[in-house]
Design goal:
This protein is mainly α and 498 residues long. The protein is 46% helix and 10% strand.
Length: 498
């Protein structure tokens, strides 16, 4: 029996891991998790993390996607030791810049007889596929061009036939992939078929380019999604045909949505860029993605990046799919925001609001700064976007939420409360949190109302919302004139609504 087996391994420090995205869109969280696991593994073993752009799909690959992928990786903090923008002695690191390398590898395989030129026309191949489908069998190339003579080839060329290069594979025995996560997985060689290495255009196929690149770049561990597992036996056979050492393979289970289908846009945000734009912080997203398949002890949830590097191992990655839980991610994000140094949080918020309704407003002459407001809202925030929701009214006239306006209009105590508040706040000698709190507590007692019930119409009147930062701090931040002005406007609103 012809059995091909893999057994990988190398000394720590010699580890070389690559992340090789195709630039056909934004970086999906599944790809981000793959990059994270590869990065953690390389860093934990003091090895090298390589970024390689697999852009041979010329119809779908775009420069915009390359830039977005690089931006997302940089935002996540996943730096690379070799790759675009960094360089390295095993580049280029974009496949379309490596065409000569692929041509040389194909030529060597042809010369050794381990590959051959195939002149079958698209029509002939389509007919063979149709016959296989009619017979209820998978299509496997029948090797009709595997033993052409030089004379045969000259005749076909003279007839105008183009050719591709195919790898000559065994049609008996099995290829065993010894996967770090899945264990041994067997593939019957008879169903693999002599696959194409170079197309007639000279562009390499995925399996060929990946294998040549992994060998040329000295990759010791291939960490990728398990949708690539069916490609692995072909890559093993190709690497062996080239006389190259096999890397270790680790195929990660899928990430699923709540409906147990592959996680995608129909489940909401699915790319790193989308989560970033919604106000998630990189620490939380990295922490959460690390737990989608890997666990230290089944109990510990929160890890710093340094702890993840120290604790991470491929052996503790599970083989079953994980379900993406937005609620857990939001909880984790809130934890990181609340734990963040206020100055750091203010800096993150300032970067985030550059493209929001608050752009250019915080810190102007008559408006508070982000740093001023962070202490008021930090404990209430789950995402950076919450800062906008919680503080927008400081910078714009209050716009009433439907629920808030309804509650204000229906509150029988609101006219008296607002009139009282406007009067006492106008008369304060010092407009400080302490003075505001003392005065309004006394007013609530005078009107025989619980403090919360007393403050609610004031809250709605100055903010247009039912949930705000602490009321006393909010009024101080708005200032006497603005606070009283909004209270009086709300009184007029109630009169007109009556």
């Amino acid at each position: 029996m012809n059995t091909n087996k893999y057994k990988g391994g190398e000394e720590p420090g010699a580890t070389r891991v690559r992340f090789a995205p195709s630039p056909t869109g934004h970086l999906h969280v599944g790809g981000a998790r793959t990059a994270l696991y590869g990065w953690l593994f390389a860093r934990s073993r003091k090895g090298s993390f390589i970024l390689r752009i697999e852009d041979t799909d010329r119809h779908r690959s775009t420069e915009e996607s390359v830039e977005q992928i690089i931006s997302s990786l940089q935002w996540l903090g996943l730096d690379w030791d070799e790759g675009p923008g960094v360089g390295g002695d095993r580049g280029p690191y974009r496949q379309m810049e490596r065409m000569e390398i692929y041509k040389e590898a194909a030529a060597a395989l042809l010369e050794s007889g381990k590959a051959y030129r195939c002149y079958c026309s698209p029509e002939e191949l389509d007919a063979a596929r149709a016959n296989a489908k009619a017979a209820g069998k998978p299509f496997v190339y029948n090797g009709r061009c595997a033993n052409l003579t030089a004379v045969d080839e000259e005749k076909l060329k003279a007839g105008g036939r183009g050719s591709v290069v195919r790898l000559r594979l065994p049609d008996t025995g099995v290829t065993i992939v010894r996967d770090i996560i899945k264990g041994d997985v067997e593939f019957d060689n008879s169903i693999l078929g002599d696959f194409i290495l170079l197309r007639s255009s000279g562009i390499p196929t995925y399996n060929f380019a990946v294998s040549v690149d992994d060998a040329h770049m000295g990759v010791t561990h291939v960490i990728r999604g398990d949708d690539h597992l069916p490609n692995t036996p072909r890559q093993i056979l190709l690497l062996e045909a080239m006389g190259e050492k096999l890397p270790a393979y680790a195929h990660l289970p899928l990430i699923l949505g709540p409906d147990k289908t592959p996680f995608s846009k129909r489940h909401g945000a699915s790319s790193v860029e989308e989560f970033r734009s919604q106000g998630y912080v990189r620490e939380a997203l990295c922490n959460y993605l690390a737990l989608l398949g890997w666990s230290l002890d089944g109990e510990t949830t929160l890890f710093s990046v340094e702890e993840l590097i120290e604790k991470f191992s491929l052996e503790r990655v599970g083989s079953t799919a994980s379900v993406f839980d937005n609620e857990k991610l939001s909880w984790m994000n809130g934890h990181y925001i609340r734990s963040m140094d206020s100055e750091e949080l203010a800096s993150r918020i300032e970067q985030f609001i550059e493209n929001t309704v608050l752009a250019g407003l915080p810190g102007t002459d008559d408006k508070p700064s982000v740093t001023d407001l962070v202490p008021l809202v930090q404990e209430k925030m789950k995402t950076l976007a919450d800062f906008v929701d919680l503080t927008e009214f400081f910078f714009h006239p209050a716009t009433f939420e439907e629920k808030a306006l309804s509650r204000l209009v229906k509150d029988a105590n609101a006219p008296a409360v607002l009139a009282n508040a406007a009067e006492v706040l106008s008369s304060l000698d010092v407009f400080s949190v302490e003075a505001i709190e003392s005065t309004l507590r006394q007013s609530a007692d005078d009107l025989e109302l619980k403090l919360g019930k007393f403050l609610q119409p004031i809250r709605i009147s100055v903010s247009g919302k039912t949930i705000t930062p602490g009321m006393f701090e909010t009024l101080e931040m708005l200032g006497r004139e603005e606070s009283v002005s909004r209270l009086l406007a709300a009184i007029d609103l109630l009169k007109n609504s009556g």
